[in-house]
């Protein structure tokens, strides 16, 4: 549908929506979110063969978010294939952030066939992999150029402007989609979500991997992408955090109500409130040695000729 300008000076834009997708065309961009049901057996077989990994219990192989810039022909996407392709599918090494619980190793080696009704007789031998599905996936581009480059830490224009994102601007488009989720054999939850919103002057995307291993740790990896339509600059921020389970549990408003621990947005808020010397410190905290404990800001300037 065409949305005309109003007294709030909304830019010309077009929003299309179907049962499984939602897109917006604005300022030479087309942003599309696809959100469908769990992949079928044939799709799962194909994806599993490609990523060489036992897939999460809920894998949404057809879900995606795509940012497409018409003038340059550049697109950037998030999908399950990309996210799972960055999960370690072999014996874990230092830096992979391996997590151990009572029977994690045995369980990871013998996952139950998801189509079986018998949890014992249908055990199948699987190759080693990261049973928590930890991924530092930050999306992927359709072209090798232009490339992301380190931002200038002294230039405030090369960081995501929180003042812009917290302004009460109209939301012209909002969508969210899930790429995968696994309950880790009742040991917690591993999930990857992508959310995007478009305002009259900019768009903002947040892709978040969230991990909760009960009584062990919380882990999170975020990718944020920001673009102001009046500029050719894209800003990408990636960051990871990790703390012991007890550290977050101690922040519960009501110690007798653990429901917030299953709310990834609540957990993210707590992690962001805590000092990085706690949440991004491999010498203390959960002490897994995970290489994702960092914050990086990068920029990219778009060409306007295909």
Automatic annotation (TrEMBL):
<comment type="similarity">
    <text>Belongs to the TIP41 family.</text>
</comment>
<dbReference type="GO" id="GO:0031929">
    <property type="term" value="P:TOR signaling"/>
</dbReference>
<dbReference type="InterPro" id="IPR051330">
    <property type="entry name" value="Phosphatase_reg/MetRdx"/>
</dbReference>
<dbReference type="Pfam" id="PF04176">
    <property type="entry name" value="TIP41"/>
</dbReference>
<dbReference type="GO" id="GO:0005829">
    <property type="term" value="C:cytosol"/>
</dbReference>
<dbReference type="InterPro" id="IPR007303">
    <property type="entry name" value="TIP41-like"/>
</dbReference>
<protein>
    <submittedName>
        <fullName>Type 2A phosphatase activator TIP41</fullName>
    </submittedName>
</protein>
């Amino acid at each position: 549908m065409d949305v005309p300008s109003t007294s709030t000076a909304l830019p010309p834009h077009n929003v299309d929506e179907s049962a499984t997708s939602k897109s917006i065309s604005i300022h030479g961009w087309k942003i599309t979110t696809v959100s469908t049901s769990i992949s079928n057996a044939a799709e799962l077989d194909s994806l599993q063969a490609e990523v060489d990994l036992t897939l999460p219990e809920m894998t949404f192989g057809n879900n995606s978010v795509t940012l497409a810039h018409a003038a340059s022909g550049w697109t950037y996407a998030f999908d399950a294939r990309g996210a799972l392709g960055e999960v370690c599918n072999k014996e874990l090494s230092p830096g992979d952030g391996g997590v151990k619980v009572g029977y994690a190793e045995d369980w990871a080696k013998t996952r139950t066939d998801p189509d079986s009704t018998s949890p014992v007789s249908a055990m199948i031998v699987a190759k080693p992999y990261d049973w928590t599905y930890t991924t530092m996936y930050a999306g992927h581009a359709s072209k090798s150029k232009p490339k992301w480059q380190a931002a200038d830490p002294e230039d405030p224009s090369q960081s995501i402007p929180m003042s812009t994102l917290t302004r009460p601007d109209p939301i012209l488009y909002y969508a969210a989609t899930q790429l995968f989720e696994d309950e880790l054999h009742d040991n917690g939850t591993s999930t990857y979500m992508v959310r995007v919103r478009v305002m009259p002057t900019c768009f903002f995307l947040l892709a978040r991997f969230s991990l909760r291993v009960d009584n062990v740790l919380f882990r999170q990896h975020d990718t944020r992408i920001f673009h102001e339509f009046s500029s050719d600059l894209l800003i990408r921020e990636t960051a990871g955090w990790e703390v012991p389970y007890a550290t977050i549990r101690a922040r519960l408003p009501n110690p007798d109500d653990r429901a917030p621990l299953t709310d990834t947005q609540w957990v993210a808020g707590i992690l962001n409130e805590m000092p990085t010397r706690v949440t991004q410190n491999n010498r203390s905290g959960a002490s897994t040695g995970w290489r994702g404990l960092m914050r990086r800001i990068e920029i990219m300037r778009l060409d306007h000729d295909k």
